[in-house]
Amino acid sequence: MACSLKNGFSLPGETIISSRSKGSSGAFMSFSAVQVPDSRTTDFLGKALNISDQTGNAKASRPLSVNAQASSICVSRSLRWWEKTLKPNMIEIHSAQELVDALLNAGDRLVIVDFYSPGCGGCKALHPKICQLAEANQSAIFLKVNYEEHKAMCHSLHIHVLPYFRFYRGADGRLCSFSCTNATIKKFKDALAKYGTERCSGGGPAKGLEESELLALSSIGKISRKVPMESTMMDRVEDLVMSMTNAQNKIGLQETNEMLVA
Fold first, then answer.
1. Residue 159 in contact with residue 100, Cβ under 8 Å?
2. Is 234 contained in some domain?
3. pLDDT tens-digit profile of 56-100?
4. Which end of the chain has the lower number of beta carbons within 10 A, N or C?
């Protein structure tokens, strides 16, 4: 709060003191002095007339000292709309690598990725309801991605409309994706009811982003090349070994059956 100080006062034979405010973060006082001539000597009918003070003492008045201490007011920054009413299961994503890791480490929990922009009116209007749904579904994880801070990542994931949501779960990977507003919030609630129910484990590690999306993010340097490439390569090797093992088992069973028949 800025304080405006515009008052002043004067004393005979002394100074005229005024103050004014300056600045917005506190009240600062500045003083200007104007010397008033001594009024003890004046002219009366063309003759000099000496006037003494009330005490009859011709001593000069004591100097007047004024001490002023500037006060400052510290105002804390208010929360921005996307920072308000957040719940413990709502996590702000700060990098593409963090998004990849969060999806892979979620296990079989339902993960909802919320793409938003600070300047998006629909995102701002929908935010309180998303927070309410997050509070009502604490087993789900809500990952918030600021489009303005991660444009390159969003382009690689083909996010071109806001607000936009993606639902992921365990080994199934991405379940659905859509855009919705306050008017179409039922779409979000239906998806939450469909995919948020308790179920047995999907039987495998969380899939996360598609391989093509990982490659796109890796090509622009947003994620480490080793992490996604090694994981997808290991998955391919394991799938190949499993398929070969199954094929060998089938061949062995067929040979055994033929020998028994013979």
1. no
2. no
3. 454 555 555 545 454 445 555 799 999 999 999 999 999 999 999
4. C
